[in-house]
UniProtKB/TrEMBL annotation:
Key words, A-Z: Membrane, Transmembrane, Transmembrane helix
Sequence intervals crossing the membrane: 116-136
Name the UniProt record assigns to this protein: J domain-containing protein
Taxonomic lineage: Bacteria, Pseudomonadati, Pseudomonadota, Gammaproteobacteria, Oceanospirillales
C-alpha cells in the first residue's frame, strides 16, 4: 500500500483543498490515480486513514527494534511505511542487553535450584541414616 500522504507531500490532517492541490501537482500518474480514488472519496479516505495509522505504528515499532528494509527497497511502495532505524528509534542493542540479563538470571536460578535440590537430597539421605542409627541400631 502506498503512503499517499508522503508521496503527495502533505500532512495526514490536510484539508480537502490541500489534498486536491497536491493531487493536481503530482507528476506520478499511478499515485495521482490512487489519491483520486482514495483520498477524494470520504468513505475510502476514512478506511485508508485507519489502515494508515496501523501501518505507521508498525513502521515505528520496527524502527524501535532496529529493523528496516534492505537499501534496494528505497523508493519502493514496500518501504513506504518504514522509518529509518537510526539511533533515536533503534532499541535493538537495548533489547539485546535486557534479553542477555534475563538469560543470566534464569541460568543462575537454575544453578541455585539444582544446588538446593542436591543439598536437600543429601540432607534427606543423611537424616534417614541418622534416624536409622538412632531408632534401629541393631540393623547396623
Amino acid at each position: 500500500m502506498r503512503d499517499l500522504y508522503r508521496r503527495l507531500d502533505i500532512h495526514v490532517s490536510a484539508s480537502d483543498a490541500d489534498i486536491a492541490r497536491a493531487i493536481a501537482r503530482c507528476e506520478n500518474q499511478a499515485v495521482k490515480t490512487d489519491a483520486e480514488d482514495v483520498l477524494r472519496v470520504e468513505s475510502r479516505k476514512r478506511e485508508y486513514d485507519q489502515l494508515y495509522g496501523t501501518l505507521t505504528g508498525i513502521g515505528l515499532l520496527r524502527a524501535r527494534m532496529g529493523l528496516s528494509h534492505a537499501p534496494y527497497w528505497n523508493g519502493s511502495v514496500a518501504n513506504d511505511f518504514s522509518i529509518s532505524a537510526d539511533d533515536e528509534y533503534a532499541r535493538y542493542a537495548e533489547l539485546k542487553v535486557k534479553v542477555a540479563r534475563a538469560v543470566r538470571v534464569h541460568d543462575t536460578w537454575q544453578q541455585v535450584r539444582r544446588m538446593m535440590l542436591w543439598s536437600g537430597g543429601i540432607s534427606l539421605v543423611t537424616g534417614a541414616g541418622v534416624a536409622l542409627l538412632v531408632f534401629a541400631p541393631d540393623l547396623f
